Amino acid sequence: MTDGNNAKKLYSYSMRDELIVEIPIERIRANPLQPRKEFAKTSLYDLANSIKQHGVLQPITVRCMGEMIPTYELVSGERRLRAAKIAGLTTIPAIIYNISENDSAIFALVENLQRENLSFIEEAEGYLCLIMEYGLTQEEIARKVGKSQSAIANKIRLLKLPPMIKKIICSYGLSERHARALLKVQDEKLQLKIIKTVCDMRYSVQETEKYINEMLIKNAIDLENQAESQNNQKTVISEKKSKQSILKDIKLFVGKIRELITDVKKDGVEIKAAQFDRGEFFEFVVRIPKKENGLTK
Fold first, then answer.
1. Which of 48, 139, 200, 257 might form a disulfide with 87, Cβ 3.0–4.6 angstroms?
2. Hey, what long-range contacts does 102-106 have (CB within 8 A, 24 or more apart)?
3. Which contacts of 217-223 are long-range, i.e. CB under 8 A and separated by 24 or more positions?
C-alpha cells in the first residue's frame, strides 16, 4: 500500500464537498506540530517569484479553529504560505478541513513524507511527536504512514544522537546510514571527533563504518592502557605509603629500645649501649656487666 493510499484511507474527508476558498493570510497560524523545521531561503524566494507570476497553483490545507472570527491553523503547505507572504499576498487559496489536532499532525507528517521534503532527523522527530503528544504506538504510526514498525523504530533511535551531532549531520547532508553508524559510539566526545573527520574527509558510508570500527578499537586500547597506568600509579602510591608506615613503625621500635635502656640505667644497672645505622638496618650493641659491682648501690 502506498503512502498516498494510506493518507486517503486515514482521512475520511468528503472530497465531493471540497471547496477552494481565499482566506486572509493574517488569520492563519502555523502548525506547532509541523515536522519540517528547515526551509531553504533560496528555494522560498524562487517559489515567491513563481507565485508573483502565476499565483499559488496548489491550495494549502487548514483547519478551522471555531472561533467567533474565523481563524485557521495550517495543516499542510507551510512552504507555500511562507513564499506567499514573501510575494506580498494578503490572501491565499485554501481547502478547509474539519479534522482533529491529532489528524492534523499526522496529515502534516504524511504530506511532507510524500513530498520527500523532510530530513530523516525531522521525520524521526515527527514520529516521536506523535508518540509523546498523542499516545500513538509505533505500530499505529507504521500503519498510518505505510512503513514497517521496525522502520519507525530505527528512525526514532537516531534521536539518541546528541543535538550537536544531529546538527552537524543535517548541515553536511550526511545520510541516514552515516548517522546510524554513529550510534555504535557511546562517548559523545569520540562521536564529535569521528564526525568531524568524516565531514572533513568526505567519507562514504563504508569508509565511515570502517573508520568508526578502527576508532572504537583504538579507544578501547587507550582506555585499557589508561586503566593499567592508573592501577600502576595506585600501586606505587600504595607501596610508598606502606614503606612510610614501616619506617614509622621502625622509628617507634627504636624509640622503645632507647626508653628500655634508659629505664634499666635508672634501676642502677651500669649498662652501656651503642646504636649504629648500617644503611639497610639499625644495630644496637648493649653491654651489661656480670660482676656484682655492675650494680650500683
1. 48
2. 102/134, 103/10, 103/11, 104/31, 104/33, 104/63, 104/73, 104/75, 105/31, 105/33, 105/129, 105/130, 105/133, 105/134, 106/10, 106/130, 106/144
3. 219/187, 219/190
Any domain includes 187: no
285 contacts 295 by C-beta, under 8 angstroms: no
Q: CB–CB of 169/161 below 8 Å? A: yes
Residue 243 lies in a domain: no
Domain count, the chain: 1
User: How do residues 16-73 score in pLDDT, each as one tens digit?
Assistant: 346 889 999 999 988 876 767 677 788 889 999 999 999 999 999 998 886 677 889 8
Highest mean pLDDT among 9-18, 23-32, 240-249: 23-32
Q: What is the CATH number of the domain that holds 80?
A: 3.90.1530.30
Domain of 138 in residue numbering reads as 3-158
- Which residue numbers are catalytic? 78
Q: Crossing angle of helices 3-10/138-145, nearest 10°?
A: 110
Per residue in 107-166, pLDDT (tens digit) is: 777 776 666 567 899 889 888 988 887 788 999 888 888 889 999 999 999 999 999 999
Largest Cα span, the chain: 137
- Residue keyed to cell 513524507: 113
One-character DSSP codes across 119-184: -HHHHHHHHHHHHHHH---HHHHHHHHT--HHHHHHHHHGGGS-HHHHHHHHHTT--HHHHHHHTT
Global model pTM greater than 0.90: no
